[in-house]
Structure formats: C-alpha cells, structure tokens
Amino acid sequence: MGLLTIIKKQRLKDKEIRVVMLGLDNAGKTTIVKSLLGQDCSTVSPTLGFNIQTLPHAGFRLSIWDIGGQRTLRPFWRNYFEKTDFLIWVVDITTDGNRLEECRDQLKVTLTEDRLSGAGLLVWINKMDLINGDVNSYSTVVDQMVELLELKQIKGHKWLVLPCSALSGYNLIKGLDFVTEEVGDRLYRYT
Amino acid sequence: MVHVPNTGNTPDSLEDDYKFSTRSSSEMIDSMCDLITRLVQHVQQEQKPSHDVHSGQIEKFTENDLSVLVSHLDSFQELPQLLDEYLPTLVSQLILCFSSSGDDVNISLRASKVFYTLCKVRGAKIVCRFFSSDITQLVNIITWLENQVPNKSTSTFQSTWEQRYVVLLWLSILILAPFELESFGQDTGERVYNLSLNFLLIPGKERDAASMVLSKLVTRTDVKRKLLNRLYLDISKILSDDVEPRNQIDSFSILGCLQVLAQTLQLVDIESIKPYLSVHKAFLMTSQECDNFSNSQITKLKVKNLSRLVSKYMSLIPVGNNEDQFLPEEVEEILGELFDILSHKDTIVRYAVAKSMARIAQLMQGRFEVQVLEIIEGIFQCFDYDVYKTPEDVWGGVGTCIDGVSANLWHGALLTLAELLRRQLIPISSLSRLVSILENSLKFEQRLLVHVVGANIRDASCYVCWSLFRSYKDLPSNNLLSILQNMIQLACFDREINIRRAASASIQECIGRQESTIIGDLAVLLDGGNFEESIMSNKLDLIQALDYNTIGQKAKSFTTVASKVYDLGYTKSLTEFLIQRNHGIGSWDPEIRRLSARCLGILSSKTSGNFQEYVRRLASVYANVKNSISEYELRHGILYALGEIIGAKLLTHNDYNNSNNSLDNNIGLVVQTTILPILDSVTLENLQDTNEFYFAESFLHLLKSVILFIETMIVGLRDELRQRCIDLFFRPLPTSPLFRLSKVNSCLKISHMSIRNEAVDLIEGCSPAYITRELIQIWFDGMKGELDTTVTSTFAAVLGGIGEGHPQETYHLVIEFLALFISTKKNDTLTRSEAVKSLARLLLLSSIENQDRLLIIEALISAMDDYTTDDRGDVGSWSRLQAISGFIALFKRFPSFKKDFFLLESESMHCILLKTKLFRLAGESHDKLRLLSYQCLVELNDATAHILRENSPNNLTWKISVYFQFMAKTILSKDKETVFLPYIKTFLLGLVSTAGAIHVSKDSSEVCGRELMLYMSSSVRIFNTVIEFLKPTAPAPTDFRVSGKFINKREGSTLSQFEQKVSLCALRIFEKFFDLGLTPPVEEETVCDIPDGAEYTINVVQYRTLYAKIFNMHINTKNIAGRVLPSIRCFEGISQLSCNQLERPNQNLANIVKIYSLQALRRLVVLTKHGAPMVRERALESLYIVLQGKYNDILEDDNHEEYGLRVEESDKIIALLEESEYTNPPEILAENAETYMAYIEKMFAK
C-alpha cells in the first residue's frame, strides 16, 4: 500500500472525474472554468502553464485540467497513471478558416492518444455572445462545426457539440451534465 | 462473438494466449458473455429430455472454458467498474445456472467459482445487489444451508466453499424480505440465526458472507428485539470462552464476531443499540489478548468497531448549546486506545487507525474544536519522541538525529496527518510545524543492523503533501517551496520507484493547484537567476521531465531526468542532495552511490564552475572522512564521483574541443593539486582490506579517469614536452607510474566482479609505457595462483586489457601464455573462460602479427570444444560462449577480415573447422550459445551464410520451435545438401545431443526430437549418420594439427566426453524412433560427393552397423538404465523390421534386414536370462510384443503347408511367455529361453 494505491482508491471513492480541457489559444478555456467557479472573468490572461480546478457537479468531483493552448501537449498526456476520463475541446466561434483546420488536426492527433481511449468528448463552441442571431439559429452553427471538425469520423468516443458562452454562462451547466452522465454511466455506474 | 482460444497443448495455442493477453476489455466482455451464454445453454440442455433432437448441437461448457472465463474476470481486477454495465445480465444468468443446475454438481460448482471470482473482482456488496430477490427461494436456501453446516464430528462438507459462499450471499439479500419472517415458518429467524452463526466461526471465506447475513438479520425490525440481545449474549460467550491461550481456529471466531459487530453497528439505529454500547466497548477493550496471535486483521476490525462506536456515542449527544457539552468519556477512552494502536507493526492497521482518527475528528468538528486541536497536537507530538540533537558534524550544521524514533509511529502519524488534511481539519496556522516535520520525514531513512526502513515513511510523507495541495488553497509560498524542493529530490533520486512516482504525483498537484502562490516565487528555487519569462512554462516542463514512465527506471531518473531538471534551473537542490551523508553518494546502496556519482559527473559538465566546485567540495569532505572507519560508504562515493567528474570532463573535451588539443590548464591544476594527493594518500592497507572492496573499486575508477586524463593531456605534444608533462604529474611520487600500478595489483587480489570490470577498463586506458614485462609477469602468476577463482579470473581478464602499441614479443608472450592456459584442462574453468575472452579481445588489435593471430584463432576454435562439467553444470559453456562471441566481434569489426586474412578464406582448413564447430553448437540445447552460433555463421558472409540469412523466418524472436524447424529444414533438406554437406554431421551431433538429452527443457527435446525423427525417417544419410554417433567405447582424442603447437597438448579431450554423451543420446533417439513405430528410410535418390572426399556416400541404411553398434552398446556396461534398457527397445524395433515395410524392396536389402531382425530376436531371448531383473523384465516384455506380432503374420499366412502346426506351436509359446515372470528362478528362465530359441529357429530361421 502506498500513495499510488491510495490515489487510485480515493478516486473511485470520491467519484472523481478527470477532465482535460484543450483547444487552441484564446478559445476561452480558463474563462469557462472561472465562470463555472463563479469567479471574476474579466481579468483572464493567457494560461502559460496549467491549472487544476475541482468542481463538484451532480455528485461527482470534476478535476478540470485547464492546459494552456499554445504548448505541444502530447508529452503531457503520458503523465502519470491516471487515465483521463473526458476531453473538453473548446473552439472559438470567431476563429477563421486556417485556424479551424489547425484546430481539427490537433483534435484528431489528440484523440489518438492511448490515455484518452474511450474517453467522452465535448466540443464547446465558445463566445456565442459575439454572434448576432437568436438561439434557434445555433443548430446550423453546430452542424457546421460537426462538418468542419469531421466529428462523424470519430470512433470509440461519445461526443456532443454545444454552443456556449463563458461570459453569459449559456450552456455551461448543460455541458457539465453531459460530462457526468457520460462518465458516470461508463465508470461509476454502481458506486 | 469472439472466438475463445482453446488452451490445449498444440503449438498454436501459445500464440493464441499471447493475443489473448493483449485483448481490449470489450473483446473480453464479449467473450465472457459468450461463455456464460454457453453455460446457460448447457444447463438448459441438461434439463431437457434426452431425446431432444437439437441437444447434441450445443457445445458443452468445459473445465477449460471455466478457466478462460475466470482469467478474463481476473484481468478486470484493476478497473472493476468496467464490468458494471454487464453486471445485471452476468449475475442473473449465473444465478439461473446456479439455481437450476439440478443434480449436475459440476455446473453449480463452476457457476459458483465464476461467482466468487466476480465477487472478488468487483466486490461482494455490489455484486449482491443483482441477486434475484425471489423470496420463494428463501426456505429452500435455508434448508440447503442447514444441511451444510459444519459439525464437530464430521469435518467434511458435501459442497465446495464457493457454493456455500454464494448461497450465503444470496441469503444476505433474501433476508431483507419486506415481510414478517414468521410468515415463512415460525422459527425462520432462529434458523437463519443459528446457521449463520455456525458459519461465522469458521476459517473459510463463508465467514464474510455469514457476517453479512447475521448483521442484516439482527437489525430487522421484526426480530431485532429478540436476536440482537441473543447476538450480544452469544458473542460474549464466545469471546470469554477459554481465555487460556487460544488456538488458530479461535482467532477466526474472534474475527467473525468482530466482523458482525462492526456491520451491525453500521446498520442498526441508535435507539436499539443504546443498551448494548457499553458491552460492545467492553468486548473491544478486553479483547486485548487477541494481539498475542499477532493477527492484524483482528486489530484492524477492532479499530473499525471503535470508530463506529464513536459515531454512535456522538449521535447520543443532544443537539443544543455547544458550551454545555462535554465529550463523552467513552470517546476520550477510545481515542486513547487508537493512539496506542497507531504505532502497530502492520500497515493495514495503521492506515485503519489513521482513517478512524480523521473520521472522528470530522465528527467532532464544529462542536468540539478544542478536542480536534488536541488530536492534532497529539499527532504532532508523535514526531518529538526519541529525537535528539546531534553535535556539529563535518557538514557544519547542528542537526536532529532521528535514528532512534519509531518508524511505525511516524508512519501511522503521517497517514493520520494526511487523512486529516484531506478533510481540511488541520488549521493553516499549523503549516509551519507540518513543514518542519516533512523536512525530516521526506528524507527519512533508518539503517538497522541488516536492513533499512523508511520507504513507507517517505511515501506517507508524499501522501501528506498530496492531500495538503489538494485540499488547501493559496498556501504560503515560503513553506511550499521548501516542500517542493524536497519532493523534486525524491522524484529524481529516491531508490524506490513508487516513491519517485508518488513524489511526481504530488508535484503535479502542487503546481496545478497552488499556482497563484508559486508563480512569483519559483525564481527563489531557480538559483540561476533571470528566468522571468520562462518560469510559467517551466512548471509544465518540470512535470514533463518527471514523467511517470521515465522515472520508472532508476538509471534514467539519475541521469536523463536529473539532467533535465537541472537545466530547468533547479540546480542547488539537486547538488545538495547528492553530496551528503546517507543519501546520494553517501547512500548505503552501492548502486545508488554509483548512480549519484554518475549524476554528479553529468551535472559537473554543465558549467565550467561546477567542475571546480564539486571537486573542491568532495575533496574537503574526503579529508574529513578518510580516516573514519564508519564512513567507508561515503569514501567510496566520493572517489567514484571524482572519477565520474573527470570522466565527464574528458567526454566533453572529446566532443567539442577537438581542435584545441590541450585541456583547460585550470583543470590540469585541479587534478594535480587536489586529486593526485587523494590517490596517493590511499595506502596499500586500505586497498587490501577485502571487506572494503568498494573502496578498491572506486580507487580503480578514479585512477582510470586520471590516467585517461593524462593521456589526453599529452596527445599531440612533442616527445620532450610529453615527458615533461608526465614528470610533472608524477614528480611527487617516490618512483614511477609503476608505484600507482602496484596499488592496482593489490586491488586485483580482491575477490569481486566489479573490481574486474574497473581493472580491465583501467588497463585498457594505460599507455604501453606503464605496462611493463614485470607487471605482466605478476598477472601471469596471479592467474596460476591458488587464490579464489574470481581473483585468478580477474588476472586473466586484465591481460585482455592490453592495448595497441606494445612490442611484438609482449603480445607473443601473452598469447602463448593464455593459449597454453586454456588448453590445460586442470586449470580453473572460470579463469579459462576469462582467458578465452582476453584472447578474443587481443584478436581485435591491429598491431598483432598474423602468426600470433593464427595462434589465437586456433586457441579459440579449440575452446569451442570445451565440454567440461562439474557440480555447477555445463561450465565449459562459458569458454564456448566467449569463443563464439570473440569471432562475432572479429567479423563485425573487420567485415573484410576473412578476405584479407588468408587463414579464414572460405575454403581454408581453419574456416571449415570453425564452421564445423559452429554448426554443432547451433544445434545445442544452450539457448544463448545456439543463437550466437547462428549469428556467427551468418556473420561469416559466405555461401552458407547467404542461404541461412535468406531463408531465415521474419520473426527473429527465435522461439525454440521456430528455430529448429528452420535450421533443420535449411541444413538437412536434400536440395541444399551440396553447401551444407560437410556440416550435416556436426549439426546432427548438436541436434542429437539436444533431442536425446535428459536434463533439458521438455520443449527443446520435443521440438528437436520431432525434427530429427522427421529427417531420420526420410533420409538414409541422416539415419546412417546418427548410427555413427553410437560409440560404445571412448574414442581416441581427435585433435587437429595444423600449426599450433599448443592445440594438441590438450590433456585428455573434453570433446570425447561430449561424444560419450551424444552416444547415449543417440541410443535414446533410436529407442524413441522405434517406439514411435517409424521405419528406416529406403534408398536415396541421389548421392552427392562432398568436397573433402571422405567416405560418406552410402545410400542404404547400414543395418549391419546399426545392429553391431547397439549390440556393443549393451554389453560390458553397468549402465542399465542408460544403455541396456534402451538397447532392448532397439532390438525390439529391429526384430520387427521386415522387408515388407520397405517401399521398394530389393532382394539384397531384404536379406540383410531379415538377418538382423532375426539376430535381434535372438538377442532378446538371450537377455531374458540376464542378471539384472529390470533387464529380464524388459526383455520378456519385448519378446512378447515381437512374437505376438509375428504370430499374427503366421495366422494370416493360411496357405502355408504346416499352417495348423505352426499356429499350435505359436499358441504354446505365447502362452508360455504370458506365464513367464522375470522373478522366475534362473533355471526356469534358462529352460524357457531354450524353448523360445528353438521356436524361433524353427519358425523364422529358414
């Protein structure tokens, strides 16, 4: 018995869900986390390292690893034994075409990681508050994003695309619901 | 559905197993569902009437299926929740099988085994939920269980424990039935109580389930009034029973009682239990004597009970005004008890106490803040016992000495702190105290007389840090940084992999969660200074450097990881850790000292300042410890580290500084003024102390670096300057460099492997000037000395370190000496094999003349025939191995060597001879030898090598079956005979020695045997060759004489011993050959000439030779089991041969066969009179078999004129044989034998 075993057991007991939040820089990842934690969102500067925030939701403890957008992330995944349960991918709706392609490629590469096998995927289309138009028109945005990111080709991951806004808090809780439902169903069904 | 591999014994199943281990979880679940469905079908089929038409189509569920299913389930042990989705179906199907299995005991048995495994993997409580709650089963189950209750008179059960376990678990669900128990029968409650109490007191697994049943029963509202009271009465009887020393069984009943008590406490409501609380506490407090059984499980359960009791007591306190309330006395008492158990010798108990204390503290939080603080204070005080201050030491500081503290107490206390922190119960104001404890505990190590403790304490300290970082926000940075620093040291340099990883996990939490405070202050740690811009990304780099997988390897952590961490700026903490007592280069573990030294070497070359600083520090510490007896570890570490530091300097010099030929003058000065004096201060007495071989090792290590350093210094200097330079370095010495090398010689006399390696490296680096004839003479004498064989072999090894540039006479002298040494069989085997290795090294030198090179090659070839054995086994294989490796190294180093060097041209005598040996070794049973021989054959790069290479199978894993199949096919197949012809015989020699060997793995003898039989039964040449291996008497040594005068001086051929062994192997092969009912091959189609023109072209099986050889094998020997018995089997086989079995009989051959089959039959008759009972028995048996077979021929031949008579006589003989016993008196045996003989002569000799 040692710390490593304790961590493993503790995780099961606490119903901890390890979520990694990624996306290109300036997509609004840290703002989303701050908004969820009810903190002040007006003073977010680029994340250079990473932050772990714990967020209780629907009886689970979500450990959200918010990782800066501009670093090569690959080696990071291999970091220790804890498997990542869920991947949140944040996209900025105002992103132009080239960047979106980069975004798609990054997502594809990331999903091939061993440690992410079977993990659920939530794509948050952030900054919807900057777009004119009512909520009903959002479904076309979602469809476009599914096309752009070629999500239909993904196998082995349950996924969902949600338009959201970090500033207004729109669809943030709904996203977390998806996370806990997906992971809870898969890993914590009877605990 | 996924196909489930059968795990039979076919070769394919191995590969299936391999696939099976890499399956994904979903595949395994599919396969499991498949299996369970089959189990269900099997059950249904059993129940159907037997005339059902389709019943035959369903596959049965076998024992094999069961083991596959169980092993699938077991592989979910690490992540059992992956099974959850399938649990309801799995469990309901299993229950179905289990309950409807009817009379088929096997099915319910297998179902219960699967059930148990499922409970083990996923946890009984969770699996239980899916049991059917069909209460109509309740009465059946109770009745069944009552019949299984163990009673004192018969201790045998009618069922397996898995079955009882599962049924009890099921009962534990059914007992929750929401009806009055009375409605199932008047005394149902009583019945369940009685039976489960019985199961509660036994040592088996049923106890766990029984306690679940019992606790649920007694807390039922309808019966609790009656049964709860009874439970406490019964338990008090059991616990007070027989207070005298309890035996093992009794401790299980205590265990059962405590289990049920704990579970009852959890389930029961406070009002019902209130009257029993004090009794309950009394049980726990008086069951003190349990500890005498050293049964930690009991203590752990006691802790569990105590903690639940507290929660009951706490719930009794009325909610109201806080100030008026007092903590119940009982709680105080229990806390005191827990503190006592905190330092229990077992981890599970300590951890249970830690969790209990934290839970209690949490219960008290808010209402009894003062008491919570008291608990924390109590825990803190645990770290103050037996700590005393140490006086100022060489490190210049006053420290605290924790050598006397109780490691168990510290561990327990740290776990408690971690649990408290996790619940945020420790006020932030205590942080500085916590940090000062961590300062000590993160480095904790206690050296006891024969072992070291403390790893668990460092691990628990990491747990404390981990909890701290997770549960608290915005910790003050000054405290954090010192912890972080310690943790980086642990992650890089701890000896234990788990602790390196635990530290890395804690660092992640720290950096990820304490960001706001750390960012600004990280610069304090980074003593390099201006890292402002990279600080933040630096944190991520740190985590990447301390990667979970990379730090899994000790060597990598100390080198690559530490180097990366250093580059990130964490310089000081690393250096400080490495240079200290008890850690780093002062560690008790020599491996850690060496690794630390290597790390210092790497770090020293990072900046120019490091080199000087490290050397200065190490030298000053050395000055303090050089005369202290107890600091031998540190001395080893320091000298080793100095060696590494100079070595690293040379490495960077070679890498970057090639244009500039001289090293930095300052460094030369440092070596001259600091390091040479250290080397010279080492006395011969120091080195000769055999108990301190590490010191000698480090001395050699340092001297090696210094010598290399001097060599590098003087490269490119003119002669006169060079001399001046050497003089400068050696001036302070009384004599020449020899003086230092004389110290080396005394090191060589220390018996240890690491000394040998260091010494060889050192001699290799020495320039020829140092290696004088006198020195070499000393080494010669050392090899012949009467010392320990490790020492003599060390002397043999250093001779191989002689490098280029010596005069030819020196080489000649050494080579002659070594060759002679190898060929003298009475010399020690280990030393001989080292001598072979040394010769192989010398072969690579370019300054050796061809004449000498020839000597070496001949010596190496003859070493391949070293088959010396002693009580350690095949010790000759060491020499064989070194010789082959020598040739491989030669061919790799000089790919064109064979062309340039006349001796190894492909058709030369030496080359053929070498290949002959290699082909033999390529068929041997020694795995490594075999593969190396193959490699060497390929490296030869000639015609045979090409064929071998082109046809080699793709997977070079060389499973033994793949290898032999490939080799036999390549070498023995007819179409390739021309190239391999000269080597078939020697390859077969190796193959026979493997296939017929007794002491060899079943795998290799089977695989080899299969191939051999295949080719023996198809090729006359191969069959005849194996016949040749039968050598009843020891052959005369066959040495080859080309030029070497040493080769033929061998005293007694070791090869002949090998041939003796092969002879026995060949006999066993023939025995097996005939046993399998194989027939010798017929004429060969083509006959090839072979290059050396030997008489080899025989196209008919040599029956005459076969018979004669086997005849000779079985006479004049005492070796009944090895020679006589197999020979009888062979005679049996030969006498069963007839020309009818040959495909294309030729009259001449038919006659020969007939003659020898008759001869063999006669021989069998003679052997029925043999002196040894075993021989008589076997001979009678064989004779019976043969005559029985011939009798059938007679029966078939009903056209024969004397048919009736022949049958009649044969009947008589068979009857006589059936009656004969080998125990009959000799005269009867002799008489019978005459009868048989007469019969045989009459029937077959015509």
TrEMBL record, chain A:
An example Pfam family from this entry, by short name, is Arf
List the keywords (alphabetical). Answer: GTP-binding, Magnesium, Metal-binding, Nucleotide-binding
Q: Which residues bind Mg(2+)?
A: 30, 47
Give the matching InterPro entries.
ARL2/3, P-loop_NTPase, Small_GTP-bd, Small_GTPase_ARF/SAR
Q: Could you state a single Gene Ontology molecular function term?
A: metal ion binding
| Keyword Magnesium applies | yes
Enumerate the SUPFAM superfamilies for this protein: P-loop containing nucleoside triphosphate hydrolases
Tell me the residue numbers annotated for binding GTP: 23-30, 69, 126-129
SMART domains to which the protein is assigned, alphabetical: ARF, SAR
**Which family does this protein fall into?**
Belongs to the small GTPase superfamily. Arf family.
The protein, known as: ARF/SAR superfamily
Q: What is the source species? A: Nadsonia fulvescens var. elongata DSM 6958
From TrEMBL, chain B:
Concerning SUPFAM superfamilies, the annotation shows: ARM repeat
Q: Which GO terms describe its molecular function?
A: beta-tubulin binding; GTPase activator activity
Q: Name one Pfam family in it.
A: ARM_TBCD_2nd
GO biological process annotation, one example: microtubule cytoskeleton organization
Ranges for the Tubulin-folding cofactor D ARM repeats domain? Answer: 321-516
Write down what this protein is called.
ARM repeat-containing protein
Q: Which organism is it from?
A: Nadsonia fulvescens var. elongata DSM 6958
Q: What is the lineage of its organism?
A: Eukaryota, Fungi, Dikarya, Ascomycota, Saccharomycotina
